[in-house]
Amino acid sequence: MLLTVNRDSACMGDDVHDHAVELDVDGASSVGAVVADLLGRYRLACVAGEVAWRIELRSGRYEVVGDQLRAPERLDLALLHVPDRDGGQTFIPLAPHLLDEPFGDTLRALGEGPAWVHFTYISDGARVRETELARYRAGQDLSGDTGNGR
Fold it and tell me: How many domains does the chain have?
C-alpha cells in the first residue's frame, strides 16, 4: 500500500523543501515493523543537539466545519530521540499495544480518507523530559497543541 510520509521543518531554511514522499509499505506488516522500515528509509533532519520527534499516524483531511477547522484523526505511535546520549536513537512507544497489530487494520480503524505518517518536531534541540512524558501519559499533548493524539 502507498503511504505518504512527511515531517516538520526542524530549522530555518529547512522549510524551503517539501519533505513529503510516498513509500510502498506492506499493510499486513505490524505497525512496529512499518515504523522500523520507515525509520530506515526516510531521512529526518539533523540539527545540533538532541532532537525529539513524535511519530504520528494520521487519517483524513483538514476540514472547515462551521467556523472551526477540524484536523485529521491522529494516533501518536512513538517518540524518537536523535541522537541519544550514546549517539544512536531512543525509541519510546506511546501506543505499545499497537506495535504488533497489522498496519492496514490499524489504519482502517483510525478512519476514512488519505493516510500518512508524520514526524512532528517537538523538542527544539532537547530531549523530552520525563515530566513531559508523564504529562502526556496523563492525557496532555507533548507539543502543547490541542490535537487528538489518542
Answer: 1
Copy the grid coordinates of residue 114. Answer: 488519505
Does the pTM exceed 0.85? no
Looking at residue 102, what is its pLDDT? 95
Nearest to 36, CA basis, from 85, 91, 84: 91
Instruction: Find cell 502526556 and name the residue.
Output: 136
Q: Is residue 147 part of a domain?
A: no
Contact present, 81 and 55 (Cβ < 8 Å): no
Banded model confidence at residue 100, pLDDT cuts 50, 70, 90: very high
Asked if residue 60 belongs to a domain, the reply is yes
Domain carrying residue 8: 2-137
